[in-house]
Design brief:
With 230 residues, this protein is an all-beta fold. The chain has one domain: Exo-inulinase, domain 1 (Jelly Rolls, Sandwich). Helix content is 0%, strand content 39%. It contains no helices and 16 strands. Strands 1, 2, 3, 4, 6, 7, 9, 12, 13, 14 and 16 form an 11-stranded antiparallel beta sheet that branches. The radius of gyration is 16 Å and the shape is globular.
């Protein structure tokens, strides 16, 4: 049903396997369309985008466990330590920010053997791996072969689209049932979620979260911004 070829991406029809207990009917398959498009406007040419990180503090963000896994260094959020997830809650944590259709961008730098992720359509939870929404993988060299840009356990990319110790831009665009992932302006794939998906591992609405995966992983994030789409 699914096969891989030399570019390291899974092509054709694939059956989705959620990270937690499967909630999708086994008959559901999803078409992954590989696109070849180059577009990534410079920050100065990004009308409509709002910054989610002030470059100096974790204001607007809330960690769920192991607070020491997060710090701000040289204008970047650095995750390095035991498992923790840093959720964007916005200026008022009593009414957390939510996003449905959006274009999200972040500049990312992975250190060697680092694993992390960017969750979207998720919600704050006090501990554990986020149960709601999807995770866009951040991993260019760690032992897990699923590389940067993958939608974890849904669309798997096995070739790193960026290098460790270098800044790259990772993007995800959600519009309706369509999810498009870009790295350094290049579209890796478009994934269309099928109708009838139930459970929490699906598109709905929610916020973003960054992942501190393990003590051996160090990843830096900066210029985190989002544009709400109509």
């Amino acid at each position: 049903m699914a096969y891989a070829r030399g570019d390291g991406l899974v092509h054709g029809a694939i059956r989705l396997v959620p990270r937690t207990t499967p909630v999708w009917p086994t008959s559901i398959v999803v078409a992954v369309t590989i696109l070849a498009c180059l577009v990534s406007p410079a920050a100065a040419e990004e009308p409509g985008f709002e910054s989610l990180f002030d470059g100096a503090s974790l204001a607007g963000w809330k960690a769920n466990e192991n607070l020491g896994s997060w710090q701000v260094v040289d204008g970047a959020i650095v995750c390095h330590g035991p498992r923790s997830h840093l959720f964007y809650v916005g200026p008022d944590a009593a009414t957390p920010a939510e996003f449905k259709d959006f274009h999200f961008k972040a500049d990312v730098m992975t250190k060697p053997n680092a694993n992390s992720g960017i969750f979207f359509h998720t919600k704050f939870q006090p501990e554990g791996w986020p149960a709601q929404g999807y995770e866009m993988q951040v991993n260019n060299s760690q032992g897990d072969p699923v590389r940067t840009g993958s939608i974890y356990n849904v669309v798997k990319n096995f070739i790193p689209p960026a290098a460790d110790n270098e800044w790259f831009t990772e993007e995800v665009v959600v519009k309706g049932k369509a999810v498009t992932v870009l790295v350094n302006g290049k579209v890796l794939f478009e994934f269309v979620e099928p109708e009838g998906v139930t459970g929490t591992r699906r598109l709905s609405n929610g916020t973003f979260a960054l992942q501190a995966h393990d003590p051996g992983s160090e990843v830096h994030y900066k210029n985190i911004r989002v544009k709400r789409l109509p």
